[in-house]
Amino acid sequence: MKTPKPISPFRLSSLLRLQKDPNLALKLFQNPNPQHPKAHKPFRYSLLSYDLIVTKLGRVKMFDQMEQILQQMKQETRFDPPEILFCNVISFYGRARLPHRAVQMFDQMPSFRCQRTVKSFNSLLDALRRCGELPKVREIFMGMENYVNPDACTYNILIKACCVNGSLDDAWVVFDEMRRKGVRPNVVTFGTLIYGLCVDSRLKEAFKLKEDMKRIYGVKPNAFVYTSLIKGLCKIGELSLAFRLKEEMVTNKIELDAAVYSTLINALFKVGRKGEVSGNLEEMSVYGCKPDTVTYNAVINGFCKEKDFEAAFRILDEMVKNNCKPDIISYNVIIGGLCKEGKWIEANDLFEDLPRRGCSPDVVSYRTIFDGFCSWRRFKEAIFILEEMVFKGYGPYSASANKLLVGLCEEGNVEDLWKALNCLVNAKENVVDLDTWGLVISIVCKMDKLSNAFNLVDTLSALNAVN
């Protein structure tokens, strides 16, 4: 039998790039030639294969396995790992809300024979910002100048941290320091500040900054700047100015995106101008801007608020027709609207039809339909959903759970009350408040069913102990 040709380092990189399953990719990396006679010899891994497997593992938060690969890479002497690899690892930890690991990776970089530049400092600052570690962000920044000079990206991260934290005054302080240090602000700098001002409804300052960025700094506003301003205007009901800004984008040849139209469509429904929505959807195609799921969801949400559920379902059909698959948000909005209007049968039909439509119900789906049943006193249906919800590891909103128990107490339905409480014992969180506990026990006692009362006390005690 012919011996199979061994996988080369180059071939391994190609196979890793093609492998979508990170677990299979890891197995392939760890043992690229399991059947070959020379498999006992050390494999000469390339830098590219290390980069590929680290990236695959980091993206799916397989951090322990990723760390093992990094430690293996540390032993390599044929190459020095590049800084960008560690920047990516630090970013993975930031997105996973693991600030300590991000700092640890940054501190370990010299042991990998990798010199830290402003790029890795920026990666660490941004990871800490994502984790809400603002004091640590300031600490790192204050000591940063002992090693590298901050650049525009550094200051942009600091400004964003301030804006996200609602500290616009601090953001302006950072902006002033940036200019004082001779670092030129760019479109990201202005976009972040304008976004923060619009969120805070300081539109006059936001428009002034838009003019200053062009007149003083020679920086042209981009789509993000315009979208922030349009959202700010829609927020205060200034639709005419918002549409004027959209036309300005066309004049300045700034590509319109779905976010702009989604914002305008939401605003049109809000002020009762739903008749203009279809025209905006048609206009999108004129400008080569294809409606996405967010755009369609804005339309669905608007129709549901108008109680026009037939139109909402038509939008679902239109999405499928236009090769834009509805997501779970699309369905949850309709389910929620139907429940609110007491159309619980239609809501439940749609909920049960989700798998056929290629969309699995999520925790919001379950909580929405459960709350709908409780609100309209469909307690048996609510308990059925509760059992399925808890089985899947989800839990109801506290208000909904208490609504169910109070309703069952009012009806004197001890059997269903018992079922509901047994479900809630297995829920991950305690969602029953003390007042409801007291009501449950008192109602059962009044019905002179002491054995049940004692059982309920035991169940409620278990509920308290578990949660």
Summarize this entry quickly:
Keywords: Repeat. By secondary structure, the protein is mainly α.
Describe this structure as you would to a colleague.
Helix 8 runs antiparallel to helix 9, helix 15 runs parallel beside helix 17 and helix 25 (434-446) packs antiparallel against helix 26. Among the domains are: 150-238, Tetratricopeptide repeat domain (Serine Threonine Protein Phosphatase 5, Tetratricopeptide repeat); 383-467, no CATH class. It is mainly alpha-helical and 467 residues long. Helix content is 69%, strand content 0%. The N and C termini lie far apart (62 Å).
What low-confidence regions span 5 or more consecutive residues with pLDDT below 50?
A: none
Tally of helical segments: 26
- Structural class of the helices, strands and pairings? mainly alpha
Radius of gyration: 29 Å
CATH architecture of the domain at 150-238: Alpha Horseshoe
Quickly name the level 1 CATH class of the domain at 150-238: Mainly Alpha
β-strand percent reads under 5%
Order of helices and strands: HHHHHHHHHHHHHHHHHHHHHHHHHH
The pLDDT mean sits at: 88
Keywords: Repeat
InterPro entries: PPR_P_subfamily (IPR050872), PPR_rpt (IPR002885), TPR-like_helical_dom_sf (IPR011990)
PPR repeats: 151-185, 186-216, 222-256, 257-291, 292-326, 327-361, 362-396
Protein name: Pentatricopeptide repeat-containing protein
